[in-house]
Design a protein that fits this description.
It is a single chain. By secondary structure, this protein is an alpha+beta fold. Among the domains are: 53 residues, Membrane-bound Lytic Murein Transglycosylase D, Chain A, CATH 3.10.350; 51 residues, Membrane-bound Lytic Murein Transglycosylase D, Chain A (Roll). Helices cover 29% and strands 15% of the residues. The strands form two sheets. A two-stranded antiparallel ribbon has the order 1-2. The chain has a two-stranded antiparallel sheet with strand order 3-4. It is globular.
Length: 162
Protein backbone atom coordinates (compact mmCIF):
# COMPACT_ATOMS: atom_id res chain seq x y z
CA UNK A 1 0.00 0.00 0.00
CA UNK A 2 2.87 2.36 0.76
CA UNK A 3 4.24 1.92 -2.79
CA UNK A 4 0.91 2.91 -4.36
CA UNK A 5 0.66 6.00 -2.13
CA UNK A 6 4.22 6.99 -3.07
CA UNK A 7 3.49 6.56 -6.80
CA UNK A 8 0.29 8.64 -6.57
CA UNK A 9 2.11 11.39 -4.68
CA UNK A 10 4.90 11.44 -7.29
CA UNK A 11 2.40 11.62 -10.16
CA UNK A 12 0.49 14.46 -8.47
CA UNK A 13 3.72 16.41 -8.00
CA UNK A 14 4.74 15.87 -11.64
CA UNK A 15 1.29 16.94 -12.90
CA UNK A 16 1.43 20.08 -10.78
CA UNK A 17 4.80 21.01 -12.26
CA UNK A 18 3.69 20.36 -15.86
CA UNK A 19 0.34 22.14 -15.68
CA UNK A 20 1.21 24.99 -13.33
CA UNK A 21 0.81 28.51 -14.72
CA UNK A 22 3.98 30.58 -15.05
CA UNK A 23 4.79 32.49 -11.89
CA UNK A 24 6.51 35.82 -11.39
CA UNK A 25 9.78 33.99 -10.67
CA UNK A 26 9.61 31.47 -13.50
CA UNK A 27 11.65 32.11 -16.63
CA UNK A 28 9.80 32.45 -19.92
CA UNK A 29 11.72 31.35 -22.97
CA UNK A 30 12.19 33.55 -26.02
CA UNK A 31 9.45 33.07 -28.59
CA UNK A 32 10.54 30.61 -31.22
CA UNK A 33 9.38 30.54 -34.79
CA UNK A 34 9.77 34.06 -36.03
CA UNK A 35 10.75 34.56 -39.65
CA UNK A 36 14.16 33.23 -40.69
CA UNK A 37 15.24 36.57 -42.19
CA UNK A 38 14.71 38.43 -38.90
CA UNK A 39 17.46 41.00 -38.40
CA UNK A 40 16.14 42.89 -35.36
CA UNK A 41 14.45 41.61 -32.21
CA UNK A 42 12.68 43.13 -29.24
CA UNK A 43 12.16 41.78 -25.70
CA UNK A 44 8.52 42.11 -24.71
CA UNK A 45 8.02 44.33 -21.64
CA UNK A 46 5.23 44.16 -19.09
CA UNK A 47 2.09 45.76 -20.52
CA UNK A 48 3.22 45.58 -24.16
CA UNK A 49 0.66 44.94 -26.88
CA UNK A 50 1.39 44.26 -30.53
CA UNK A 51 0.32 47.72 -31.69
CA UNK A 52 2.11 49.17 -28.66
CA UNK A 53 5.37 47.59 -29.82
CA UNK A 54 4.87 49.04 -33.32
CA UNK A 55 4.25 52.48 -31.78
CA UNK A 56 7.11 52.19 -29.28
CA UNK A 57 9.55 51.48 -32.12
CA UNK A 58 8.49 54.55 -34.09
CA UNK A 59 6.07 52.98 -36.57
CA UNK A 60 9.02 51.73 -38.65
CA UNK A 61 6.93 48.68 -39.56
CA UNK A 62 3.24 47.88 -39.74
CA UNK A 63 1.16 45.70 -37.47
CA UNK A 64 0.63 43.45 -40.47
CA UNK A 65 4.39 43.04 -40.88
CA UNK A 66 4.73 42.29 -37.15
CA UNK A 67 2.22 39.43 -37.46
CA UNK A 68 3.90 38.17 -40.64
CA UNK A 69 7.32 38.14 -38.97
CA UNK A 70 5.93 36.49 -35.80
CA UNK A 71 3.44 33.86 -37.01
CA UNK A 72 3.05 32.35 -33.53
CA UNK A 73 1.66 35.61 -32.14
CA UNK A 74 -2.14 35.44 -32.00
CA UNK A 75 -4.05 37.96 -34.12
CA UNK A 76 -5.47 39.50 -30.92
CA UNK A 77 -1.98 39.54 -29.37
CA UNK A 78 -3.12 37.72 -26.21
CA UNK A 79 -0.13 35.39 -26.10
CA UNK A 80 2.74 37.85 -25.57
CA UNK A 81 4.53 37.60 -22.25
CA UNK A 82 7.23 39.80 -20.68
CA UNK A 83 10.70 38.53 -21.54
CA UNK A 84 9.75 36.92 -24.83
CA UNK A 85 11.74 37.93 -27.89
CA UNK A 86 9.86 38.88 -31.05
CA UNK A 87 11.02 39.94 -34.50
CA UNK A 88 10.70 43.67 -35.27
CA UNK A 89 12.75 43.91 -38.46
CA UNK A 90 13.88 41.76 -41.35
CA UNK A 91 16.73 41.80 -43.82
CA UNK A 92 15.70 43.90 -46.79
CA UNK A 93 14.73 41.72 -49.72
CA UNK A 94 12.80 42.22 -52.88
CA UNK A 95 9.06 42.33 -52.18
CA UNK A 96 7.18 39.14 -52.76
CA UNK A 97 3.64 38.69 -53.88
CA UNK A 98 1.20 36.31 -52.27
CA UNK A 99 1.37 32.66 -53.25
CA UNK A 100 -1.39 31.20 -55.41
CA UNK A 101 -4.28 31.22 -55.36
CA UNK A 102 -4.85 34.97 -55.60
CA UNK A 103 -7.32 37.16 -57.43
CA UNK A 104 -6.11 39.27 -60.40
CA UNK A 105 -4.58 42.70 -59.79
CA UNK A 106 -3.05 42.13 -56.35
CA UNK A 107 -0.56 44.88 -55.40
CA UNK A 108 2.83 44.28 -57.02
CA UNK A 109 4.68 45.47 -53.91
CA UNK A 110 2.69 43.24 -51.55
CA UNK A 111 4.87 41.97 -48.70
CA UNK A 112 2.27 40.50 -46.34
CA UNK A 113 -0.46 38.04 -47.24
CA UNK A 114 -3.49 36.51 -45.55
CA UNK A 115 -5.35 33.34 -46.51
CA UNK A 116 -9.12 33.67 -46.09
CA UNK A 117 -10.73 31.03 -43.88
CA UNK A 118 -14.38 30.19 -43.33
CA UNK A 119 -16.26 33.00 -41.61
CA UNK A 120 -13.80 35.75 -42.57
CA UNK A 121 -15.11 39.18 -43.51
CA UNK A 122 -13.19 42.22 -44.69
CA UNK A 123 -13.80 43.81 -41.30
CA UNK A 124 -12.35 40.80 -39.47
CA UNK A 125 -9.28 40.64 -41.73
CA UNK A 126 -8.52 44.36 -41.67
CA UNK A 127 -9.04 44.60 -37.91
CA UNK A 128 -6.83 41.60 -37.20
CA UNK A 129 -4.10 42.88 -39.51
CA UNK A 130 -4.31 46.50 -38.36
CA UNK A 131 -4.98 47.96 -41.80
CA UNK A 132 -7.72 50.15 -43.21
CA UNK A 133 -10.48 48.83 -45.44
CA UNK A 134 -9.46 51.44 -48.03
CA UNK A 135 -5.93 50.02 -48.20
CA UNK A 136 -7.21 46.43 -48.28
CA UNK A 137 -9.45 47.26 -51.25
CA UNK A 138 -6.67 49.19 -53.02
CA UNK A 139 -4.21 46.31 -52.62
CA UNK A 140 -6.84 43.74 -53.70
CA UNK A 141 -8.80 45.42 -56.53
CA UNK A 142 -10.76 42.27 -57.31
CA UNK A 143 -12.61 42.63 -53.99
CA UNK A 144 -15.85 44.54 -54.53
CA UNK A 145 -16.72 47.70 -52.56
CA UNK A 146 -19.24 45.81 -50.43
CA UNK A 147 -16.58 43.17 -49.76
CA UNK A 148 -18.94 40.31 -50.45
CA UNK A 149 -16.70 38.30 -52.76
CA UNK A 150 -13.82 37.05 -50.57
CA UNK A 151 -12.87 33.57 -51.75
CA UNK A 152 -12.22 30.84 -49.18
CA UNK A 153 -8.61 29.63 -49.39
CA UNK A 154 -7.41 32.56 -51.53
CA UNK A 155 -4.51 34.79 -50.48
CA UNK A 156 -5.07 38.52 -50.18
CA UNK A 157 -2.57 41.34 -49.71
CA UNK A 158 -2.58 42.84 -46.19
CA UNK A 159 0.65 44.88 -46.36
CA UNK A 160 2.87 46.53 -48.93
CA UNK A 161 6.46 47.73 -49.03
CA UNK A 162 7.19 51.38 -49.63
Amino acid sequence: MLAITTIIAALALAANQVFAAPTQTSQLLARQGYTSDCSKTYSVATGDTCIGIVDKLGDTFTLSQFYTWNPQVASDCHNLFPGEVVCVGVTATAPTTCPAPTQPGIAANCDACYTVVEGDTCYAVTTAKGISLANFLAWNPSVNAACTNLQLGYNYCVGVSS
